[in-house]
Amino acid sequence: MSTTNSVVILLRDNNFHSGEELAELLGISRAAVWKAIHSLRKKGLDIHSVRGKGYRLPRKMELLDKTLILKNIPPALRDKFQIQSHFELSSTNDFLLKYIKQDFNDISQVCLTEHQTHGRGRRGRAWYSPFGSNLYLSFTWRHKQSPQAVPGFSLVTALALAKSLELLGINNVGLKWPNDVLWNRKKLAGILLELNGEAHGDQILVIGIGVNVDMPENSEESINQPYTDISKASGKLISRNLLAAEILTQVAKYFHMYESEGMSSMIQEWQSHDAYFNEVVELTFPNQTIKGKVAGIDEHGSLLLDLKDGRRRTFQSGEISLRAH
Ligand code: BTN
Predict the structure, then answer these.
(1) What is the sign of the dihedral through the CA atoms of 163, 169, 170 and 174?
(2) What spacing in Å lies between the alpha carbon of 155 and ligand 1's midpoint?
(3) Does this model's pTM top 0.85?
(4) Domains plus CATH for the chain?
(5) What is the pLDDT of residue 293?
(6) Residues 78, 122, 253, 293: which is the catalytic one?
């Protein structure tokens, strides 16, 4: 294990640890301890230091723990997932996109990490991924039906995510088509759906979920859109392991429901969470902008927009950006 990771493990109890103590416990020099602290801060971990006392995290830290995640998934769904967690990856989506080329079966491969060096968002944006404070989770899904159903998985994932957050006590979760999860109109979680080609005619999806759990202070310097996190939305700190378990549980339920019944049974649920329902919004395309009033989604998960001239148009999810007008 790297020195930086060993330092996190010692610091996670929220007590003060002097440089000397850390150096002795890890059998390294104090300069090496300082280097590790510096590198962790650069990865976004908030480490306080007090002269004469040492280093301390602002609060206790529960590291990702795949055993705990699995234990909190209902037994009937547990064997549908194979989980791995890492201290650092470039991106959990990238990891699975590479990994499942060599090894993939019907079980959903789940990958989590404490920190992403190149977290990716939609439309080529970066996804800020500070160490240990949020959830960065990706999973594979083998879809055996029509490729036309693939874009709908974005919306279904957003619904599963909203349900998980509600079950953990977060109220007023909103959705923005196609798959932003909001609270108070600020971004709480994002979803990145990518295709990793086909295997024997099945679509292999890689779905990445980033949930803002407890953003470090000063994160606004690194994020160029209004955002919030679970600790602000609920006033409490929640376990990332329990959150991951709930998300995977709901994903399994919603995905099976979608594959057996389609989107129709979820239209109402979407509408009740739609943060922009009945509001005038702008859809931005590479070379034009369309304005209209949001009228919900159809059975394919397409957006329904009522234009000023009375026409109703549908838009498939893709590289469209929806903005409040
Ligand atoms: C968005 O722009 O709203 C989508 C954000 C998706 C972020 C998650 S974090 C886990 C996974 N790995 C990535 O690099 N991106 C997704």
Answers:
(1) positive
(2) 15
(3) yes
(4) 3-56 (1.10.10.10), 66-271 (3.30.930.10), 276-324 (2.30.30.100)
(5) 94
(6) 122
